[in-house]
Amino acid sequence: MPLRRTRLLALASIAAATAIAAVPRHASACGGTFCDLGGPQSVDQSGESILFVMEQGFVEAHVRIDYEGDPAQFAWIIPIPLPSGTELEVSVGSQVLFDRLLDSTVPTFDLGNSFAAECGGRQSPSCGADSVALEGDFFPEEEFPDDPELLARDVAGAYEYAVLEGGTADGVGQWLDDNGYARDDDAPEILQAYLDEDFVFVAFKLRPGTDLDQIHPVVLRYPGTEPCIPLRLTRIAAVEDMRIRAFFLGYARVVPTNYRHVELNPLRIDWFGRGANYDFLVTRALDQDGADGRAFVTEYAGPSSVVPWSGLRGFAWSSEDFLEVTAATLSQTLEAQGLLACGLPDSVDGDGCGPTHPLLLSLLRTYFPAPPDVPEAEFYECTDCFAVDETAWDPAGFAAALEEQVVGPAEHAVEVLGANPYLTRLYTMISPGEMTIDPLFHERADLPEVSSQWTATLQSGCEEEPDRLVLDDGVSIVLDELGQLPLFPDMTAAVRIEELPLTGAPAVLLDTTADDMARLSAWNESHSPSGCECRAAGRRSQGAGWLGLLLLLGLRARRPPRSPPDPWHER
User: What is the rounded distance in angstroms from the CA atom of residue 254 to the CA atom of residue 130?
Assistant: First the structure.
């Protein structure tokens, strides 16, 4: 049974970074996660970024991995529901796609200034080499009931992977030990839970000789109908308040199925700090009664065109061209295809020349290493400037790796963005003790869009009239005598907590809108003298002063550390 294909498939879905989907067997069933089995030098689980594509009948998971430590200690295991007789696709994903998704939908807080007048089956992997037979010397000579069955062993870019089915947690652990996969002593109980639910495991490790700069996203695709972020195994290596961002490409907004949905209270945002207390508010909102630590915030829901295609794929890229390239003409071809360029702000040599793709330098090092006495930047910028050994250049190996790790994933990224007009970004911060349920997700076409841009306008008052902050929905907040926003410390961080079923009205568990508006109205009345006739001249002068203050306050606009104190509301 083939487990890889020799060309990139025309897939209509992507799912990313540490998440897999579920094959529907039970309402609470879901499949897949990534977990750290590497001990003290492990996969970085301080945060995960996930992209799902809502394709009917299939789920494709792009998994981005952050890792620091000894490459030989890298180990990663993904449980997925893969019924017997089906196929799994494993391929290389696009790091640039992740960067574009994150950058284009990150929440921003804009403060303007004006005058008064927001889970089967197996499919064969795409973008691979020849098919791999599942037989013979991959199996041990002697088998025991605890041993898992090795369904496949193959490579995908920088990784070796194996697909294991059945056995026991002890048997899976022993297999990992025997085959050079580091594992965690806390894993067996959780592994057994997935085995009891008929999941298979996909175990990854870096190929021998692979360096950390060659790490890239991994793509897994298999039949399923319900996207899911499997967190139970993740909790082994997770930190407190681990950040998880889940992206969904499809035709409608996506919401959590078995987790709650939370809306942040705009009256608690540090507007003058440009949302510097954002993570603090998210943490507080998710921990409120009703959310109970298992909920998501929608950071963006709207057209996928918000993600720019520019830079995802070079129009001149052609891996086949490198089959005819010599060592002397390598730099010229790289530059002609736009893979090597000058004028870059962050380049290898510091002078603005270097690779335009994050994996290119590692591929060059592998298939045409620079001479020991020549700086890499100078060598790859002008290979015909040096006397080189032509036999050191491997054009066939470079062309194949470029196609698999750079060109193919980029083409697929462009294809997926073009085929799916709607993008949703969900965010949560969750601790290991809360990772006992794997969240599932579904589409709701009847829900409104959500902007990632939070906006407010500072309106300067005149004479006795106070200055005020006006939110983009028209809510007005009067500033106090010192020009400060009211703290409202007793207001909840979440203004609304709800459950969103597959269809029908949401089940509202908390809605503080009316109470919050009543408190705000009382505040505004107590700080708003009446009878002021505003004059433009006075307003203009005060507005200019506020603009200078805003420039100073803008220095506070930076992202806080994980689980930050709230310097604004607790001052």
Answer: 37
Structural element, H or E, at residue 334: helix 330-336
Is residue 312 over pLDDT 50? yes
Q: How far apart are CA 548 and CA 204, in angstroms?
A: 54
Alpha-carbon dihedral 274, 276, 280, 283, rounded to 10 degrees: 60
- DSSP sequence for 320-371: GGGGG--TTTHHHHHHHTTSEEES-SS-SSSSSEEESSTTHHHHHHHHSPPP
**Encoded tokens for 205:** 């490790």
Count of positions (residues) in the chain: 571
Closest to 371 (Cα-Cα) out of 397, 354, 392, 348: 392
Q: Is residue 63 a contact partner of residue 93, using CB atoms and an 8 Å limit?
A: yes
Distance of CA 370 to the CA centre of its chain: 34
Structure token pair of residue 408: 């193919």
Distance CA 108, CA 550 (A): 16
- Per residue in 348-389, pLDDT (tens digit) is 444 557 888 989 999 999 999 999 888 888 899 888 888 888
Helix (H) or strand (E) holding 178, with range, is helix 169-178
CA neighbor of 17 nearest in space, from 102, 121, 104, 75: 102
Write out the two tokens for 248.
């969904």
- What is the rounded distance in angstroms from the CA atom of residue 504 to the CA atom of residue 506? 7
Residue 344 has pLDDT above 80, yes or no: no
DSSP string over 222-252: EE-SEEE---TTGGGTPPTTEEEEEEEEESS
- CA 492 to chain centroid: 28
CA dist list (Å): 73 to 69, 70, 179, 355: 7, 5, 12, 28
Spatial distance between the Cα atoms of 389 and 393, rounded to a whole number of angstroms: 8
Helices 95-105 and 408-419: angle between axes, nearest 10 degrees: 40
**Do the Cβ atoms of 271 and 485 come closer than 8 Å?**
yes
Residue owning tokens 């200034």: 113
434-472 confidence digits (pLDDT tens): 998 889 999 999 999 999 999 999 988 766 778 899 999
Pull the structure tokens for residue 214. Answer: 């060659």
Question: Hey, CA dihedral for 440, 445, 447, 449, is it positive or negative?
Answer: positive
* pLDDT one-digit tens code per residue, 186-219: 778 888 888 988 888 999 988 887 778 888 888 8
Contacts of 406 (CB under 8 A, 6+ apart): 317, 319, 357, 359, 360, 363
